[in-house]
Amino acid sequence: MESIIAPESNLLEETLEKWLLELKFKNLLNAAPVESVPVGDSMGRITARPAVALLSSPHFYSASVDGIAISSSRTFGINHQTPLRAKLGKEAFYVDTGTPIPDGCDAVVPIELVDPISIEEVEISQFCPPWDNVRPPGEEVSATEVILPAFHRIRAMDIGALFQGGLSKVEVFKKPRVGILPLGSGLIPPGVAMQQGKMIETTSHILSSMIKQWQGEPVLLNIIPESLEDLIKSAEKNISSLDLLLIISGPSQGTRLPAYFLKLKGDLITYGVQVKPGMSTCLGLLQGTPVIGLPNYAMSALLMTEIFALPVIYKKIGMGEPRRKSVSAYFSQPLRSPEGVDEFIRVAVGNVGKIPVATPLSRGADVLMSLVRADGILRIAPSRKLIKTGDVVEVYLLRPHGDLNKKLFLSGSHDIVFDILRSYLQLEYPDVSFFSSNIGSVRGVMSLQAGYSHISQIRIFDDESGEYNIPFIKKFLYDTPLILVNLFHRSLGFLVQPGNPKNIKSFSDLTRHDVKMVNRIRGSGTRMLLDYHLKQKGIEPGKLRGYENETHNHLNLASAVASHNADVGLGILPSAKALKLDFIPMLEERMDLVIPKKFINIYPVTSFLSLLKSAKFKEEVEALGGYSTRDTGKILFEI
Amino acid sequence: MESIIAPESNLLEETLEKWLLELKFKNLLNAAPVESVPVGDSMGRITARPAVALLSSPHFYSASVDGIAISSSRTFGINHQTPLRAKLGKEAFYVDTGTPIPDGCDAVVPIELVDPISIEEVEISQFCPPWDNVRPPGEEVSATEVILPAFHRIRAMDIGALFQGGLSKVEVFKKPRVGILPLGSGLIPPGVAMQQGKMIETTSHILSSMIKQWQGEPVLLNIIPESLEDLIKSAEKNISSLDLLLIISGPSQGTRLPAYFLKLKGDLITYGVQVKPGMSTCLGLLQGTPVIGLPNYAMSALLMTEIFALPVIYKKIGMGEPRRKSVSAYFSQPLRSPEGVDEFIRVAVGNVGKIPVATPLSRGADVLMSLVRADGILRIAPSRKLIKTGDVVEVYLLRPHGDLNKKLFLSGSHDIVFDILRSYLQLEYPDVSFFSSNIGSVRGVMSLQAGYSHISQIRIFDDESGEYNIPFIKKFLYDTPLILVNLFHRSLGFLVQPGNPKNIKSFSDLTRHDVKMVNRIRGSGTRMLLDYHLKQKGIEPGKLRGYENETHNHLNLASAVASHNADVGLGILPSAKALKLDFIPMLEERMDLVIPKKFINIYPVTSFLSLLKSAKFKEEVEALGGYSTRDTGKILFEI
Fold it and tell me: Which of A189, A593, B123, B584 fits a disulfide with B115 by CB distance 3.0 to 4.6 angstroms?
């Protein structure tokens, strides 16, 4: 296919404009057909025509207070000296709020102004003007009155008003049917037993949920292999019942397949957009129905669907495009972006003190979890090559704006305890969330110093004093008022295959030719400690097999051993247990938290600190095995 | 009941605090039970426990590019002079993005760096470091990793991530079951044929839709009469299956029934809150289940449900309370509020030029339509007695914030044509909405002058020149750059019973003793014209029966005739047709629009003006009967 079709380099904005113009020109953005739905089921739907009241409500003159209905003319000139006596059931009638006014009456005297003389007569001593305390017919809604205009998204109170106007059904736009067709030979649907080398297809389910939110009707089509024949068969079979078809490309050759297919069997409008992630997007028509060929990765597919499919759906149901809420924030680290390309970057966003901060998350289009954890998305314009630390950026929010004040930024060393902390934090303070930049202890402290995090978790062993953390702080943070709070002590040890088949028991065993290790990333506390002990024992790191193979966290390290890609790694007991590896204890280390004093009394930080004193939290940490909370929450040092 | 129970005067904030403390103390705010739901159906639900990955994804080392998998050690030291030749299927293996790396390989050379020599051999001439272009297992998500924390509202991408972690179900909080029990003898459910003197019960349906949005499960109970026996029967029958019961009071005696019932059969915590609307709210417990007695009117019931029920529901599903978006705006007219009471006022909100403006809508708790049309709700603190024109107020939005720039404020004379304009506006500019203050021509122009509206619709007859609008503008708006644009001419005439049984044909017929008229409000153009013609003919208004009976719009005027409360009113043909009345043409009048020049080029105004030129709009106006669009859209005068 390569020689037949190649992506172009179209700018995003121009492509979008071309796409929508082309569809408009072909009358494909016209309003969707209308359907009549029961009012009770119409929440969130969009009215296709004005909803007009069939009944007046109330449909009669009614009392607006509890009291006595009378003819107002009888009250002219009365007072306490010369009150009016009126016969009940003839001249005066007890009425309740909302009940009809009897014939011959045109006013209601409130019950507290009525003096009951007997069961037959009442006395009134105040003038009551005509129509006083009387609601006219149609005060609530008049027949033929427009209750809801067309193109209105139906809310809770609208449902009440429609019912009140005597409507039992309301005319709304039919939900546009959006087909979602995933390509990929190595994909299996969720819920099917995992097979070796296969991946679970999830992108179609994400898109489906998005389309439901947009008032479209998603139609999940079966996963098909990355083959032109299968694509033709499935697309042509389904296209006539759809208003829009999304084809999710396969991971490799499949990338070009949707564009090639459209060129061959439909009309290819454009292929290749200068947007990262999402370059391989193609747009076209098949038998008069719009088709979008989406990139393979979830993040790209999601973004391109929001950019190219959402306007099509919204035009069809007469909605203006929703604008995501955005916020200005300081960017916490330098970031390069290719010129001439719109780039979308996932970020964590929150206020550090009074400063809004955005921190980039993983950039790969392929990591779905980083999208789940993201608070927002940053769009970098094609003309921008570099964002510097401290630059102000505009971030589109994926969460409510109010969450900015409830975000806690941590930076430093990674530990599984943070997952427990996260759960307990959300149990006790469900509104608070935290983002931990797992950038190692040293860079974590640098980020704290620059004002981009509230707390830095450090685990820095000082090889002169043999002490953790305090020497480092004394040396580098002596002019920052801060406290150092213990988080935990934990055992570090060798993670090895079950039964320790290679009998690895000491650091010198790492030098053996039949032993291949896996390492943690440079700058991490574990790495520093390893290097210190290797040095103490006079072992040359270059001689260790696999020393250069770095992993970003403990689970990845354990993963490497569990998958037999390494025999051993220095790590922690919970990771060993999680992946059913053996653990040979070697050392104990200490993780502390550095917190500037200016933050210790502000809300999300206070919630975090109070958590450290929770007995249940400590229990759960100890239950991990290899952890000690004997000093957890204790202030070990302050400046 | 009166002597047995009377409402207290509790402040809103204190009552809320007492209520939540009481429930907390009785363990009634504890988390709801947990249920397991299919991931695909979990959108919007709240996780009850952390969702932990069962599988690593990918669960193998995989290629991150298309290319050739090899052992990296084979590439040490190679270059273009001394390339590596590798045997396919033995030393080198074609791999696609995402597919597993064969045993013995630890790197992938991208396809564009591979020189295919034959079908058996490839040549590589660049060093490829270990793990280059290889994704480790668990890069997407590692087994045991927390995918979603507890207390997280599930979004589209979360569904993808859960599937990717191998989960097919997710543990969420059960939706709290909220019973809704409407009281009222004169109420019938929607969809039942209307009976004389009955009202459609709609409040329970509004509450039901709100509770669904809040992730609760509404349980609509049958409407019961306002009787203690019926209330006991229904409440006691249902209470055990509910987490919360809302009782909607009846309109009159029913107001005190829920409080009386709770005092008698349950625990009454409080009755009577200083909040308007909503004073008669009561709070209590029945058999250990929280019960809220709501006021009768929809607006009050809705507000009190949001204030007292929402926190209960949200605590049970572990959510922080949602905060409504708010906006600061200038208040467009003076408003008094009772001291010592929290008052909630419905408002229209939008930007007039660059000035955010809020205008109060109808204040009665009973008018549902004004809630439907409201853009926001203003809360007036107990200590505040008066809001002055121009005061800055904080308004809670009922619509998206972006809609502020799409709101058009009109003020002046009412006409049914504005309903047509509204529909066409939303057809052509679905994002624009307008609010028309129907305050009559003169007050409309005053509001425009003060900067609280974009456009003023006027219909002011000058009895010296016999001309419409221009004399008034010359006299009062001579220093304001503006344009006067014609909207329409229309016939005014007498609305009478079908067949004109009283043979009303001239203004002098209004003086007859057997003729009772209904009037429009003082300051309205119709009223001015009527007064002019009465004066011309020497008729004394005081002599006309019903002259003092004023209605706020044409439909209400027609309604009064149709319901036989008047024999005649001066009005317009469409209202006559709508309510099947006869129409006797008498006069022609002219409605124009006054638009300050500073607004004529800003967006919502331009959309409105362009609409006046639409042939379809004109056709529909003419089709109303009695209207002429011969000058519609024409500029008649400018300053």
Answer: B123
